[in-house]
Every structure is written in structure tokens, then in C-alpha cells.
């Protein structure tokens, strides 16, 4: 095989690894910079990321003639993020309910009937899946030493991806859900659990000043919920006949392809930290 053919040959993991690594490192640096001096830039970072993901989801749903009302979602999503950080979980819930109402009214004003019901239902799903769940990251930010807790949350998610990727490529033999995500294996899940647990224990001891068993709980919880988030998005993409939700992040796909595991994991991490630390 010539060097050119070797370069063109897709990797076993099905992604452009150099581009994926470069983009991943760039995103981590951007996230760290947004948390460095004050928390407000990180709130803006979350708003931009969830807005991009909402736009990708709207484009994806349009393939099935489902038209999600984007304007109330973008405005309401920003409101949820700010409300969560400034006023806590009750404000997040109120902002979510107002967004849902705005999405339904906005769509009904364009017409009624079965199509309006489908569009409104998709809009409510989008509001729940992205800005509402992402709001829990900002609730973590509002906790004591919130910046460090957010960093730990992100590192747990990175460990889940890296551990699953390496173990899946090297040892993956038994598909977890071949009809939904053929490349995801039980060996990959084991790798995710191992690395997230290691990161969780280190974070519990050196970041949270908490018992080691809390790190184990965070690691296992992150691996399970993040994998569930990946599979859920894979199911949506399969139904929409898509490989990726977008192409904004080379080597990763779309923004939503990076947020799928994070948004599902965020509420659980917030609840565990709020109850135990």
C-alpha cells in the first residue's frame, strides 16, 4: 500500500484522528480560557454552543419535514442559561416552562393541524434536550468552587470519550447496540469506566476534598450516562439518516455530536455533587 493510500484509508474508529485531537484540544483551551478570570464568559460559551447545536438539530429535523421554531428556542435557551447561573434551579425551571410556551405559541401562530403539533413537539424536545439539560452545567458552576467542579465534569466527559475510543479500537469485539451504533462495544464501555473512575477518584481527592468512593461513583455514573447520551443521539441520527449532526467541528462532526453525552450527564453530576459535597 502506498503512503497516499494509507493516508486515505479510514481509521478503524471512523474519524480523522489528527483533526479530532486538534479540535478537541482547541475546545478544551477555549473552555479553560472562558473559566480563567470570571465565570460570565463561560456562561456565554455555553449559550453559543447550545445555540449552534439547536441550529444543527433544526436542520436535521427539516430532513423529515419537521420545522422547529428556532427563534424562541435561541432566546429561551439564552434565558435558561442566565437564569440557571444567576438564580438557581427554580429559575431554570421557570425559564424552561416559558420557553416551551413560547415555542408552542410561535408555531401555532403560523398555522394549526397535525403538522403544527409535530413541529411544536419537536421544539419542546429541542428545548429539553439542549438548553434545559445544559443549564445544569451552570448550576454546577454556581456551586462552591464551581469553576473547578466544571473542569472536573468536563475532564470526566473527556475521559469517557478517550477511554472508550482507545479500548474500543484496540479490544472492541462485542457490539453493545449494533442496530443503533455499530462501533460502540462493551470493551469500549469498560475502557470508559476505567478511565472515568481514575479521573473521578483523582478529582474527589484533590479537587473536591471528598472521599475516594465519591470519585468512583462519579466515574461510573459518567460512563453510563455519557454512553446513554451517545446512543440516544445515534438513534436520532439513524432515524434521520445522518452520519453526523453537522460539520462545524472537523473530526468530531457537529457541535451536537460533542454535547450529546455532556447534556445527559450534567444533571446527574450536579445532583451528586449537591447532595454529597
Q: How is the secondary structure organized here?
A:
Layout lengths: L2 H6 L8 H20 L3 H23 L7 H18 L1 H20 L5 H28 L4 H26 L3 E3 L3 E5 H21 L5 H29 L14 H22 L1
Antiparallel strand pairs: 1-2
Can you tag this structure with a few keywords?
277 residues, 2 strands, 10 helices, disordered N terminus, mainly alpha
Overview of this structure, please?
This protein is an all-alpha fold and 277 residues long. The protein has 10 helices and 2 strands; from the N terminus they run αααααααββααα. It has helices at residues 3-8, 17-36, 40-62, 70-87, 89-108, 114-141, 146-171, 186-206, 212-240, 255-276, and strands at 175-177, 181-185. A hairpin with a 3-residue loop joins strand 1 (175-177) and strand 2. It is globular. The N and C termini lie far apart (56 Å).
- Residue share in helix: over 70%
The strand line-up of the biggest sheet is: 1-2
* Main sheet properties: 2 strands, antiparallel
Order of helices and strands: HHHHHHHEEHHH
- Distance between the ends: 56 Å
Give the gist of this structure.
This protein is mainly α. It has helices spanning 3-8, 17-36, 40-62, 70-87, 89-108, 114-141, 146-171, 186-206, 212-240, 255-276, and strands at residues 175-177, 181-185.
Amino acid at each position: 500500500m502506498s503512503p497516499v493510500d494509507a493516508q486515505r484509508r479510514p481509521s478503524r474508529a471512523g474519524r480523522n484522528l489528527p483533526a479530532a485531537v486538534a479540535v478537541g484540544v482547541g475546545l478544551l483551551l477555549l473552555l479553560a480560557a472562558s473559566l480563567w478570570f470570571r465565570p460570565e464568559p463561560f456562561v456565554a460559551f455555553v449559550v453559543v454552543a447550545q445555540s449552534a447545536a439547536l441550529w444543527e438539530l433544526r436542520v436535521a429535523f427539516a430532513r423529515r419535514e419537521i420545522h422547529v421554531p428556532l427563534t424562541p428556542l435561541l432566546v429561551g435557551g439564552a434565558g435558561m442559561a442566565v437564569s440557571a447561573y444567576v438564580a438557581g434551579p427554580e429559575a431554570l425551571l421557570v425559564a424552561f416552562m416559558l420557553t416551551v410556551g413560547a415555542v408552542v405559541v410561535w408555531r401555532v401562530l403560523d398555522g394549526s393541524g397535525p403538522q403544527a403539533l409535530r413541529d411544536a413537539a419537536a421544539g419542546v424536545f429541542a428545548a429539553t434536550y439542549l438548553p434545559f439539560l445544559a443549564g445544569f452545567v451552570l448550576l454546577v458552576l454556581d456551586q462552591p468552587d464551581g469553576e473547578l467542579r466544571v473542569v472536573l465534569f468536563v475532564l470526566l466527559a473527556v475521559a469517557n470519550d478517550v477511554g472508550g475510543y482507545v479500548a474500543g479500537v484496540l479490544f472492541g469485539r462485542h457490539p453493545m447496540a449494533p442496530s443503533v451504533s455499530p462501533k460502540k462495544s462493551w470493551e469500549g464501555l469498560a475502557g470508559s469506566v476505567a478511565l472515568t473512575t481514575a479521573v473521578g477518584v483523582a478529582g474527589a481527592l484533590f479537587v473536591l476534598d471528598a472521599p475516594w468512593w465519591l470519585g468512583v461513583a462519579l466515574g461510573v455514573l459518567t460512563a453510563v450516562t455519557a454512553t446513554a447520551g451517545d446512543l440516544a443521539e445515534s438513534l436520532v441520527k439513524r432515524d434521520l439518516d445522518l452520519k453526523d449532526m453537522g460539520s462545524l467541528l472537523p473530526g468530531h462532526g457537529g457541535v451536537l455530536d460533542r454535547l450529546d453525552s455532556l447534556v445527559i450527564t450534567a444533571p446527574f453530576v450536579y445532583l451528586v455533587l449537591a447532595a454529597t459535597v
